[in-house]
Amino acid sequence: MTLAQIRRGMTVAAIAAATILASCGPSAAELEAQRLAAEAEARARIPPPVTLNEGVAQAASVYVSFIRDVSTISGGFQSPEAIQAAMRRGADYDPATLSRGMIAYASIIALQSPEFVAGVRSFSTDPVSRRQVVENLIADPAYAATLPGADYAAGLISTTLGQDITSLTAIADSVENDAYTIQERQDPRRRWAILPIANREVRLEEAKTISASGMLPSAEDSARLFAAANSGTGLGLAAARRGPPYTPAVINALAIAALAAMGAAGDEARANTEALTFESNSQFCLDMSKLNLFQCLAASRPSYEDMFCVGRHIVRDLASCAASSTIPATIITNTAPTAIEGGTPIAINTGSLEQSPVSPN
Length: 361
Prior knowledge:
Blueprint: H1 3-24, H2 28-44, H3 54-70, H4 80-91, H5 95-110, H6 114-121, H7 127-139, H8 150-181, H9 190-193, H10 200-212, H11 219-231, H12 248-261, H13 270-276, H14 280-299, H15 303-326, E1 331-334, E2 338-341, E3 344-347, E4 351-354
Antiparallel strand pairs: 1-4, 2-3
């Protein structure tokens, strides 16, 4: 056999072997299916964008716009009509709606924390982990407090709402102090401030009617808060941290923000976010505040007493309810001294006392 014949034989054999191997490998359709499956798996590992539905932003806008309006109240009223105007402005809230709005606003504040958003989203690249985190949050909102960065988000909430609390407290001091100042003989306003209020029953019923009216969201504030929630920017907040324990209202706000960070708080999840904006302690505080306002108005006779009702049971109670909803009860530990008898230390009774938040009464 010549060399040429040998080469031809080897070529034919190589071709045959290649043909056999090709017939054993995946087909073009199979390769395409494998490619599509790989792409689907890769897409599944891309976390969804931060998503918070517009309903939460609308609820938050109610709180933001109302607190801004109440913050325009101040002492120094120059007429009975000015006192009644402040009364109408401050009484114009529904406790349930305002409570939900505060928690909704707190959740948007939490989404301004890059540490919290990044910490939550660290679980979102794996579909199984993402689903488990979402399920845990829905089953138990307190799970949100254990997620990375929760202390940063809670710090933003307490600091931001704390500014409102401080402002409202200062206004309450101003109005309540003026209720005493206006009674002094040298105050020219005293001549009308000590006179009996005309149509006392009418103004009480008017306050009750105003309280029962619905609170509508602000379109401008809703749009601003919606954009801030989904972008994580826009509110201009400085970083802050606050460790646990957290109040139920803060926990619910963290849970809403965590769901949003996982892309699980869009329109399809409104039932979950609306449920989380309800918190019984926060709403009860505002319910009691409104009841105290009505009782105060029922007992009030002259205008200076109405001034006190405005300061105490509108402005101060709003500050107190916001504080009790966002600041946990203080734990006071009493460490007793040690008595020495005959040179031998004797431990005197020790204990701890948990102090409840101040009530609005």
